[in-house]
Amino acid sequence: MGIEIRELSVADREDLWRLRLESLVSEPRAFGESAEEHREMPLEKFAKRLDRSSEHSFVLGAFDGSRLVGMAGFYRNRNLKERHKGGIWGVFVQPAYRGKGLGRALVSGILDRVRQIPGLTQIQLCVAATQKAARTSYEKLGFREFGVEPRSLLVDGEYIDETHMILIVE
Fold this sequence. Notes:
Elements: E1 3-7, H1 13-26, H2 35-40, H3 43-47, E2 57-64, E3 67-76, E4 85-93, H4 102-114, E5 122-128, H5 132-140, E6 144-155, E7 158-168
Parallel strand pairs: 4-5
Antiparallel strand pairs: 1-2, 2-3, 3-4, 5-7, 6-7
């Protein structure tokens, strides 16, 4: 499998928009955003997630040839008192590509890059209780649980807990 992982740019906005929608449709219990909310977001507003004017916010994509098959995003908190923290969001790999270490490779790519950001000392993420394989992968990368938010998501009448995880990168 010749998978390439690279930072996405505004030129990738339509592919990313479609992959994000696929993630929300196929895994509604894994993400806080709904497919309906995503569909209502104008493409240009969504594309701001790919604005390279900030070195502290980016999205990595996994490509099989020219096809985007996986994604993971990062943001750094902007408030002065919280600039030492950042977060990973939207990790998703298409089902046909799961079990091959692609999600882990995407998150590792983020970690490699953010370890170079001065003053950034911790990375946080949330993982839904339904996503056991993702949680195991994050733990293998060094993330540790620091809390559970009961009933964090409400999807089709079902409450889903989310585990908050942290990685200290000093």
